[in-house]
Structures are given as C-alpha cells and as structure tokens.
Design brief:
By secondary structure, this protein is α+β, with helices and mostly antiparallel strands. It has one helix and four strands. The chain has a domain of 35 residues. The structure holds zinc ion. The site of zinc ion (ZN) has 8 residues, from loops.
C-alpha cells in the first residue's frame, strides 16, 4: 500500500471512529449462586465453574 498523500483532518478520523464503541465484556449469571459474573471465569463469590466446585470457599 502506498503512503497517504494527505493528512486526514481530526473530524474525518473522529467521524470514522464514531462506530468504534466500547462494548461490555461477556457477563452472565452464576448457575450456583446467580451472581453476575464474567463468562468462562470461575465464580468469585462461590468458586463454581461448569456446575462443579473448583475453588474452595469457606463462606
Ligand atoms: Zn457463584
């Protein structure tokens, strides 16, 4: 690809990035304690993942 001939204005750059939005990370509910958790991550409040106790919690 050749180098650009002219610099884009700030408005052109920003208008292109209007469609570039921040998105929420994958958020689900825990199957065990129905706490809102990140998906593919062991539940931080009860230690369950995939219906099994992975991390021991004493509370
Ligand atoms: Zn949980």
């Amino acid at each position: 690809m050749p180098p650009p001939k002219r610099r884009h204005s700030n408005a052109r750059t920003r208008s292109r990035r209007t469609h570039w939005k921040a998105t929420l990370p994958g958020v689900t509910k825990c199957n065990n304690c129905s706490e809102v958790i990140l998906s593919h991550v062991v539940c931080p409040s009860c230690g369950f993942y995939g219906g099994k106790q992975i991390v021991a919690k004493n509370s």
